[in-house]
Each structure stands twice: as structure tokens, then as C-alpha cells.
């Protein structure tokens, strides 16, 4: 039913559904109408069946129903009463009003003029302000073990709580507080170091670099015999002692098959054995023949007294002790492999960065955070050693932002989210960088009282205290894993990582299944199914309304003139977006992800959304509500 038939049905129903009913707020209809104005064909397709209910009498509230719950109709064609929810009734009003507008609108009206609500968003691109995008920002922890993982990822990470008490000689580890503080052999491998070397081997075949964790805490699993008592930790009969440097204990040479009967495990021998496993590939060198393997110094040390109570006990490691161990372990590893890239401290979150979970007296705008203390100490130790001991400052970031009811975004994993929850998720990446965005969280309310902008705060400290150190985010998840909000948040994260020159990033999936979050990677990697990716150089792009739209712009060093953009509309309405300043030649090939396109897919990925010619230095796009659009221009 299209054209005159639709107009006739809409007119018919407009006389039978009184929009001024006292129990139906007109403002809600007006809000909905603003989102579809001008989309006449879409209105026809979605509303034709609903409007084809002829012969019905005017609706009346059902006397037994609570207001706002249901509306009942008396149908002359069926001779019975039938009901519909208020949500369906609201949609009926929307369809009627929008359809009547469509009937009276000009057939030649452009979508760019009519389909978006409010003033157009402008994106100012500055081609002179650019920086390289690290290839290592497109990563996931344990990527090869995830069902439906995106293709063309660049980085995998072997880490997490399990890594802290991993015994490379036997592959035994301890689950910590995740599961009964249990010693076991979760990986099922027998060959020394195989839990780690097997991951590296898979990564190499897929063209991914790897981050692997080495053990700093001091004790690792000595058996695989189940739960460990935490009544009086540590029970040293269940663990073996870690030494960072083997020669401090024995003059025996390194071996790939160490004795499992002694009481010690050596970290320099561990990475030596990994290098031997991939002999000739120089996996820890500057120019490996395959892919880089990086090393992380353990995991979330500020939490060892809770996540690994079985070995740390109830007392948190002090910041002084942690820094001293960092220097000792990094020195031992760099003696063996001077070009090894080392990550640390692998913070668990904001308070570890800020005041080492309460140990230090930090202030928001003073250079007395743990980060400052750490960087100054590592700079001094590195100067003494003759080269950087830690190359990458890495941290974990599970946003503390909440919705208006106090639900943390990381808990919002349902396919059904309220508008408020959607906005909490899609706005949350702004706390990485936006100095004007103050999220709802205990961090902004009770600790710093201002926007977080954590990447800028850390980079400023690095530039002042240890210039040249890189920055990485090796665990993060913004929630929304089963909703288009998760796609938007993840696509925004990746854009931020490139624009702010992160060296590496690896997502950690909090949900057992997060197809929508994983889809965010596909906005950048193999977005067209033909192995085309986002560019390798980030171009500055500033939005006039970043709460609604963010656009990330890149160029491709391998193809002159090619420009790739990822445009994110986090608002609930279509947005006309004008992008200016970047020279464009050829045609813009659009690929989009929306709730509607995702609902039709088993594996959520961008769908082709048309081609439009470009020239000059501007392009105007109409971005669907809550969407991610990749624009490949060549």
C-alpha cells in the first residue's frame, strides 16, 4: 500500500484515533515525528500494514486497564474487541501524522534537508594536523578463543588474573578470586610454556602481534590440585618462588625443559624459552620476521590482595615495593633482549592510577598521582640502565559511568536498554579525552569533581616526566554488548585510540557474548568484506556537537588520495553532518551499521549504503539515528 492508498488510509485513521486523548502525551508523538520527518518511503514501508485496519471504530480506554498500559478497539469487521499496547498506539499516531506529512510533501525534497532533526553538525578537518595511527590498537584479549571474532585484528593479549600465578614450567596457574583460589592446569598443556607459546603461534598465523604477561608478584602455582586455603595466606607448600634473574640463584644454563621438581621459576629463562620456540624470528626484536611479541609486567597489582589473596595476603603491595620490583624485573628481561618492548603497570582502573588505591595523597590538578611517582622513578632507573626499562604505560579502563538510576555502563549488556541507558553507554568513551564531558560517576562526583579526560592527563604526565614513553589500554569494555549502543561505543573507542596516538589497545569482553561490541571493530577493519581498512594516518577532525556526532578521518599512505572516515551518530535522531577541510577526489562508498541492519544479521557488520560523488573539500552526510557509517573515498 503506497501513494494514494497510504494517504487515504492515513486520513481515514486520523479521524478515528484522537491524538488529544488525555492519557497520551502529545510531546512523545512530536519527538518521534521529528526522527522520521521526510522519510516518506520508509514511513510507507513500516506503517502500511498498521494503517490497513479499515472499519474500526474510535478507540476507547479499556475500563479494566491501568492508564498508559493498553487501548482497546471495537472492530466492525470482526465484531469483537481487540487490544493494542500504548506503545503500538503511539506508533499508530506517529504513522498517521508522518504519513499525512509525506502525502503533502514535495517529491523532490532532498533527504539532507528533511531527514535530520535540528541544526546540521559540522566537522572541521585540518589536514595539516595529523599523526600516525598505531597498527596495534585493533586488539582483543584471547582473540583466537572468541566465537565470531572480527577478522583483520592486529593484536592479541595473554593476560588477566590467571597470568599472575602462572607457572610456565608446568602451565599450572591459580584462578584467584575468580574461582575458589584454585590451582589447576586450565590450559591443559604439558610442554613448558605451551599456554603462552600456543597463543603466539596462532597469532602469528593470523598476522597478529601478541602481548604476554610475565610474573612479578613473587609466587606461582606449584601444583594443579584444586582450591587453596586463604585462611592464613600464603600457603607456600602450594606455590613456587619466582626469581627474575636465574643467575642470582644458580649458574645452570637456560633450558627449554626446566626441572619441575625444584622450588624456583625464573622469568628471564621464561622469555628466553619463548624466543627459542620461535627461533630465528626475532619475536622480541625491533624488526621480527613475523609479528612482534610484547611483554607485560603482570596484571592489576593494586588488587593482588583481593584477586590473589592466596599469594599476596590481605596487605596491598606498596607503591614503593611495586616500583622496585618493576625495575628489577624489567632490568632482568632487558639484559636478555635489549629491544624487548615492555608494558606496565597494567593498572586495574582509575584509583590505581590516581593514588595507588588510597595509599597516596593525590589531588586532581597536582602532579602527585601514582603515575607521576612511577614515571619519575622509571626515568631515573632507565637513565642508569642506559635504555628505557618500561616502554609503554598501560592501564585498564572499565568505565565507572552510570545511567541516571546508578547502573554502571559495564553492566548494561541486555538487548533492551532504555534511552537513558543507551546514552550512558554511547557517551562513555568521551571520558577518555573530552575535557568538557563530565560523566555520572563517583570519580567525577567524589574524587576529582571535574571531567576525567584520562588520556590527556596521562599523556601530559608522560611528556613531563618520561618523554617518549608510549600509552596503551590493554583491558576495556564500555557495555552495550547486545545493543547497537555497544557498536557505537566501540567504534568511538577505536577512533579515539587512533586520534590520540595510543600505541596499543586490547578489549576484554565482560559478557559471554557481545556481538554488537565486536561489530565496532568492523567499522575499521575489513568493513567492506574485501579487506579494506581504515587509514594509517589520523587527521584532526573537530565536531561542532560531539554529544551527537563524532567523525574520525584518516588517509592511507599506501594509496594516494584515499580518505577513510568513520562517522558516529550517537543521538536518537538522524543528523545532517557537513564535513569540510579535507581534499576529496572520486566517490564516497558508504557502509553502515544501525539497529535495523544489525537485527537482520547473525554476524553484525556494515552493509553497503550507496555511493556518492565527491569533489573539492567537503561532503555532507545524513547519518541515521544511533549508527556507525564508514566512508571510503577514492
Task: Describe this entry's structure for a reader.
The protein is α/β, with parallel strands linked by helices. Among the domains are: 4-107, no CATH class; 134-400 and 441-476, TIM Barrel (Alpha-Beta Barrel). It is built from 19 helices and 25 strands. The strands form five sheets. Strands 23-22-25-20-19-18-3-21-24 form a nine-stranded mixed beta sheet. It has an eight-stranded parallel β-barrel with strand order 4-5-8-13-14-15-16-17, surrounded by five helices. The protein has a three-stranded antiparallel beta sheet with strand order 6-7-10. 48% of the residues are buried.
Could you give a quick summary of the protein structure above?
This protein is an alpha/beta fold and 634 residues long.
Low-confidence stretches: 1-90, 96-115
The CATH superfamily of the domain at 134-400 and 441-476 is known as: Glycosidases
Q: What structural class do helix, strand and pairing data support?
A: alpha/beta
Give the strand line-up of the largest sheet.
23-22-25-20-19-18-3-21-24
SS strand fraction: 15-25%
- Count of DSSP E strands? 25
Helical amount = 25-40%
Characterize the biggest β-sheet.
9 strands, mixed
How many H/I helices? 19
Distance between the termini: 40 Å
Global shape:
globular
CATH topology of the domain at 134-400 and 441-476: TIM Barrel
Architecture (CATH level 2) name of the domain at 134-400 and 441-476: Alpha-Beta Barrel
Rg estimate, integer Å: 28 Å
Q: CATH top level of the domain at 134-400 and 441-476? A: Alpha Beta
Amino acid at each position: 500500500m503506497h501513494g494514494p492508498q497510504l494517504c487515504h488510509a492515513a486520513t481515514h485513521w486520523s479521524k478515528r484515533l484522537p491524538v488529544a486523548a488525555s492519557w497520551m502525551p502529545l510531546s512523545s508523538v512530536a519527538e518521534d515525528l521529528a526522527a522520521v520527518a521526510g522519510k516518506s518511503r520508509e514511513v510507507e514501508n513500516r506503517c502500511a500494514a498498521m494503517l490497513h485496519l479499515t472499519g474500526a471504530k474510535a478507540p476507547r480506554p479499556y475500563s479494566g486497564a491501568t492508564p498508559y498500559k493498553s487501548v482497546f478497539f471495537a472492530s466492525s469487521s470482526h465484531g469483537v474487541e481487540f487490544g493494542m499496547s500504548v506503545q503500538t498506539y503511539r506508533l499508530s499516531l506517529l504513522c498517521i501524522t508522518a504519513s499525512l506529512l509525506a502525502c503533502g510533501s514535495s517529491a523532490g525534497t532532498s533527504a539532507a534537508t528533511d531527514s535530520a532533526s535540528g541544526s546540521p553538525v559540522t566537522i572541521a578537518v585540518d589536514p595539516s594536523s595529523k599523526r600516525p595511527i598505531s597498527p596495534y590498537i585493533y586488539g582483543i584479549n584471547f582473540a583466537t578463543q572468541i566465537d565470531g571474532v572480527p577478522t583483520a585484528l592486529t593484536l592479541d593479549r595473554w593476560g588477566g588474573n590467571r597470568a599472575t600465578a602462572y607457572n610456565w614450567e608446568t602451565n599450572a596457574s591459580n584462578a584467584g578470586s575468580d574461582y575458589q583460589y584454585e590451582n589447576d592446569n586450565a590450559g591443559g598443556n604439558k610442554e613448558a610454556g605451551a599456554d603462552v607459546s600456543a597463543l603466539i603461534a596462532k597469532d602469528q598465523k593470523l598476522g597478529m602481534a601478541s602481548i604476554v604477561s610475565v610474573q612479578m608478584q613473587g609466587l606461582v602455582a606449584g601444583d594443579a590440585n584444586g582450591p587453596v586455603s586463604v585462611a592464613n595466606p600464603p600457603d607456600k607448600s602450594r606455590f613456587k618462588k619466582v626469581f627474575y634473574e636465574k643467575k642470582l640463584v644458580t649458574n645452570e644454563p637456560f633450558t627449554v625443559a626446566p626441572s619441575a621438581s625444584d622450588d624456583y621459576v625464573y622469568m628471564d629463562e621464561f622469555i628466553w624459552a619463548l624466543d627459542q620456540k620461535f627461533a630465528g624470528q626475532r619475536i622480541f626484536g625491533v624488526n621480527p620476521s613475523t609479528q612482534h611479541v610484547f611483554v607485560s609486567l603482570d596484571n592489576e597489582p593494586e588488587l593482588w590482595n583481593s584477586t590473589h589473596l592466596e599469594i599476596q595476603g590481605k596487605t596491598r603491595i606498596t607503591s614503593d615495593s611495586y616500583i622496585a620490583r618493576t625495575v628489577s624485573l624489567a632490568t632482568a628481561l632487558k639484559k636478555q633482549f635489549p629491544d624487548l618492548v615492555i608494558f606496565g603497570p597494567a593498572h586495574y582502573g582509575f584509583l590505581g592510577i590516581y593514588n595507588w588505591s588510597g595509599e597516596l595523597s593525590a589531588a586532581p590538578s597536582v602532579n602527585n598521582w601514582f603515575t607521576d611517582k612511577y614515571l619519575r622513578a622509571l626515568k631515573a632507573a632507565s637513565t642508569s640502565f642506559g635504555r628505557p626499562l618500561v616502554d609503554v604505560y598501560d592501564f585498564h579502563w572499565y568505565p565507572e559511568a552510570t545511567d541516571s538510576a546508578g547502573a554502571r555502563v559495564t553492566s548494561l549488556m541486555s538487548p533492551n536498554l532504555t534511552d537513558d541507558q543507551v546514552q550512558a553507554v554511547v557517551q562513555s568513551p568521551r571520558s577518555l579525552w573530552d575535557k568538557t564531558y563530565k560523566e555520572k560517576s563517583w570519580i567525577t562526583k567524589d574524587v576529582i569533581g571535574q571531567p576525567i579526560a584520562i588520556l590527556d592527563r596521562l599523556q601530559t604526565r608522560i611528556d613531563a616526566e618520561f618523554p617518549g614513553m608510549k600509552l596503551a589500554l590493554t583491558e576495556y569494555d564500555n557495555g552495550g554488548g547486545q545493543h547497537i549502543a555497544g557498536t557505537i561505543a566501540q567504534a568511538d573507542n577505536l577512533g579515539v585510540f587512533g586520534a590520540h596516538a595510543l600505541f596499543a589497545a586490547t578489549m576484554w569482553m565482560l559478557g559471554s557474548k557481545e556481538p554488537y561490541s565486536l561489530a565496532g571493530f568492523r567499522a575499521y577493519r575489513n568493513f567492506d568484506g574485501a579487506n579494506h581498512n581504515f587509514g594509517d594516518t589520523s587527521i584532526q577532525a573537530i565536531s561542532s556537537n560531539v554529544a551527537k556526532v563524532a567523525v574520525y578521518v584518516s588517509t592511507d599512505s599506501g594509496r594516494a588520495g584515499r580518505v577513510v572516515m568513520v562517522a558516529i551518530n550517537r543521538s536518537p535522531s538522524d543528523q545532517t553532518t557537513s564535513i569540510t577541510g579535507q581534499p576529496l577526489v572520486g566517490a564516497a562508498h558508504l557502509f553502515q551499521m544501525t539497529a535495523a541492519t544489525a537485527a537482520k544479521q547473525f554476524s553484525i557488520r556494515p552493509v553497503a549504503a550507496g555511493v556518492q560523488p565527491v569533489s573539492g573539500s567537503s561532503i555532507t552526510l545524513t547519518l541515521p539515528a544511533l549508527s556507525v557509517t564508514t566512508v571510503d573515498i577514492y
